[in-house]
Description:
Blueprint lengths: L1 H27 L16 E4 L4 E3 L2 E3 L10 E4 L4 E4 L4 E4 H6 L4
Antiparallel strand pairs: 1-6, 2-3, 4-5
Amino acid sequence: MKDNKTSNNLTKHVETARSVVDGLIESLGWIELNYRCERQCDWDEVCYTPSWGPSPMGMFEPGSHNGGFGTHFDESRQRLVINNELQCIKISNLMANRRH
């Protein structure tokens, strides 16, 4: 009986933690962990996740007004933001930009 009660308590704690994390991901607008590009990338492409700082596509600073690959300037927020959409990008483009 005790093992069953312990198991039920653990299950409730895991479900509560999962719900809290899911709520945080949604409220922050984070991309789900099982991300995918809208279209299936070609054989010579990868699904690129835009991000801040150093990346294969260059260095972008959050305080900048100059949007780069995977970012844009949001007029309503008056700041550079990361695009929500994932993009298929050619591996050759990644290799050409690897020194940035």
